[in-house]
Design a protein that fits this description.
Elements: H1 2-12, H2 21-49, H3 51-57, H4 65-95, H5 110-134, E1 138-142, H6 147-172, H7 175-184, H8 186-200, H9 209-229, H10 232-249, E2 266-270, H11 274-277, H12 287-302, H13 310-315, H14 324-329
Antiparallel strand pairs: 1-2
Helix pairs in contact: 2-3, 2-4, 2-7, 4-6, 5-10, 5-12, 6-10, 7-8, 8-9, 9-10, 9-12
């Protein structure tokens, strides 16, 4: 009997007395699924009872970009809420650490990292477009919007894209990724989560082999950005700003989605050769993005510009919670 119990312990727990990383990842996936059902059900019920919410949820036959953006914002809010709930449950109860320690702690330098990440993500996308233009694979024309419309559109795109990026970062570079890092090392964790990140985008319109490879590369890019900072503020900034620049600055499809192309400064058109431009999938489907993503990844990895803050290094450690009486007996 003892040998069977020992075998069970080895199957389910590691040397630290935690669930093995595979079981922790599985628990996270289940928590995300259940939280999505519950929160999505609440939103659906609100849509049944409230006409204003129903208007947002329903997709008309001919959907306007502003309505599509609003609907994406609601979907992103639901998804983000679900993954935050799942992250809290798993981080606190399975690894005895805080929700913020997963990456959104207000650690020292978080705002600087977010600002720099916003700049670097946009510049990386801009260099991709410049490479396309150098080969004649992209053309642009001005779009006619008033300053007020441009400001309104930018605000909406910024808020929605930040929420969408934060959801994907928590899902793919958050608890599950970090559980794998802790127990099987960063190389294997990056490989596993980046492949799943690429496969998750196959449901987007017009995917190709190159677009899938590029999305896997983007997963590596973002994973290394997390590893050198242990901050999801940085990865979220890189992620949203790449997408925002693609839509708002250049009017190009983002991961095959062209719904929001008319909301920005320029109207972009990917031209032949599509091997470079990405065609209907947008820049992420072309080899220009492949080259620039590799260079940006090497910059983040090898530049030495980034460090992990002391408070974040302390926060990510796994540990058993202290008994409640300790804080009472020793308030200092």
């Amino acid at each position: 009997m003892d040998s069977f119990q020992n075998w069970l312990l080895k199957v389910f727990t590691n040397k630290e007395g935690e669930l093995r990383c595979g079981w922790r990842v599985a628990a996270f996936v289940v928590c995300v699924y259940v939280a999505s059902l519950l929160i999505g059900g609440i939103v659906y019920l609100a849509g049944v009872l409230l006409p204003s919410v129903r208007h947002i949820i329903q997709q008309p036959a001919l959907e306007q970009p502003d309505h599509a953006l609003l609907r994406l914002g609601l979907k992103s809010a639901v998804s983000l809420s679900a993954v935050v709930v799942a992250t809290y449950i798993c981080a606190v109860f399975l690894e005895h650490r805080s929700l913020g320690s997963v990456g959104f702690k207000l650690h020292s330098g978080w705002l600087r990292l977010f600002a720099f990440g916003s700049l670097l993500g946009a510049v990386t996308l801009g260099l991709t477009i410049a490479a396309e233009a150098a080969f004649g694979s992209a053309a642009f024309a001005s779009q006619h919007h008033s300053p007020g419309e441009l400001l309104f559109n930018f605000s909406g795109i910024f808020i929605v894209f930040v929420m969408a990026a934060a959801f994907e970062e928590l899902a793919f570079r958050g608890f599950a990724f970090q559980a794998l890092i802790h127990n099987i090392g960063p190389a294997a964790a990056i490989a596993i989560t980046s492949v799943f990140f690429g496969l998750a985008h196959l449901d987007n319109p017009n995917p190709t082999l190159i677009s899938t490879v590029n999305t896997i590369l983007a997963g590596i890019w973002l994973s290394l950005a997390y590893l050198v900072t242990r901050s999801l503020w940085f990865t979220t900034a890189l992620h949203y700003s790449w997408n925002l620049a693609m839509v708002y600055m250049f009017g190009l499809p983002v991961s095959g989605i062209s719904t929001f192309d008319t909301l920005g400064l320029l109207a972009g058109q990917d031209k032949t050769p599509v091997l470079i431009s990405g065609g209907d999938y947008g820049p992420e489907g072309g080899v220009a993005a492949t080259v620039i993503l590799i260079l940006s990844t090497l910059l983040i990895w090898k530049s030495g510009w980034f460090t992990v803050s002391d408070d974040m290094a302390q926060a990510i450690k796994h540990g058993k919670p202290e008994p409640r009486y300790i804080s009472i007996m020793n308030p200092e």
